[in-house]
Here is the input.
Amino acid sequence: MPSLTVGLLTQTLDSMVEVLKKRTFRDFDWLVAAVAIVIVAFGVWEIRNAQPTETFWQKQIVGLAIALIAMLAIAFSDYRRLVEIAPILYVFGLLLLVIVLVPGIGVKVNGQRCWIQLPGPLGRFQPSEFVKIPVVLMLAKFFGTHRTRNLNWKEFLKGSAILALPTALILLEPDMGQALTYLPLLAVVLFLSSVRMWIVAAALAVCIVGAPVGYAVGVKTGLLHGYKLERINVILDPENADKRGFGYHTWQSMVTVGAGGVAGTRDSEFSQSSLKFLPEPHTDFIFSVTAETTGFLGCLLLLASYALLLTRLITDARRSRDRTGMLVIMAIVGGLIFQIVLNVGMAVGLLPVIGVPLPLMSAGLSSVLATFIAIGFAISVQLRRFVN
Here is the structure.
C-alpha cells in the first residue's frame, strides 16, 4: 500500500512537470480555482460570525489547505486514467458507506450515523460527500462512449443501479437530504446522453403530479409522519406552524435573513446566530448568517460568485475533447446547482429543512474537500483539451 501511494504521488509529480514543459500551464483554469477559494474565504469569515467562540472557522482553513492539495493532485492527473479505475473507486466508496454504519466506527449525531471521527483538528469525515465523485466517474465511464442512438431502457436501468447502491446505503444512516443530492448527478448525465424527450416530459409530469399525490397518500397511510410531515407543513402553512416546535428552524432562519436588511447588520455581538437562536448557523444555515451580516447586497454578490463559477465550469465542459470529460463536469455542475438551490430555499423558508450544506460556504472538511476534488477534475479536463 505505501509503495502504491508513492507511485501515485510520483506519477502526479511527473505529470505536473510534463504539463509545465509543454507550456500548457497557461490553460490551467485560474478563474475557477480563484472564485472557489474566494467563496471559501468568505465562508470562513461567516463561520466565524456564526460561531465566534468555536474553532469551526479554524478547522475550515485547515480543510481548505487539504482541499487545495487534493485539487492540484487531481488537476495535474489525467482524468481519463481516473475514469478507467472508476469501478475500483466506486467499490471503495461503497465500503466507506458500509463502514460508517458500523457502531463504534460511525459517529452518531442527531440520530444519524453519517460520520467517521478523524484524529487531531480535522474533526469528522462524511463519506457520503466523498462518494459523489466515484458515482460521477462511474456514470461518465458508462455513458461517455460516443452515441449514435437514443438511450434505451437497459442503459437507463444500469445508470439507475449505479446511483441506487450508494443512495440506499445513505438512506440507512439515515440522511434523506444527502441522498437527494445524488439524484441530479444521474439526471444530468441521462439528459446529456440522448434520452428521449418524452421520457423527460413524463418524468417532469410525474414529479409535478406525484408530489401532491404522494403527500396526500403519505398522510392518509401514515407513511409520512412525525418531524418529516411537520417540516413540510411548516412550508405549506408557515403562519400556523409551531414556531417553538417543528417550525423553529425555518422561523429562526427567516427572522435571521430579514434582520440583515439591505446592507446587513454591524452588531454581530447581538445577532441571531451568536445569541444561539439560529440552530446550526455554521452549516445548514450559513446563508442565513450571510444575509444577516451582509444583507441583500451580500447575498447577491455571493450568488453572483456562484453563477460565475458555474458558468465557467460549463464553458470548460463545452471545451472538453471528449464526452467523458464533458459528462464529468456537467454532472458536477448539476449537483452544485441542486445543493445551492436546496440550501438557499431552506434558509428563506421556501423548502423544508433537510440538512444540505451550502457548497464551499458551510463548515465541514468533507464538503469542501469533495467540492475541490470535483473542481480539480474540471481543471484536468481543461488542461487536456488539446492532448490525445
User: Anything to note?
Assistant: The two ends are 31 Å apart (CA to CA). Residues 12-383 form one domain. The mean pLDDT is 83.
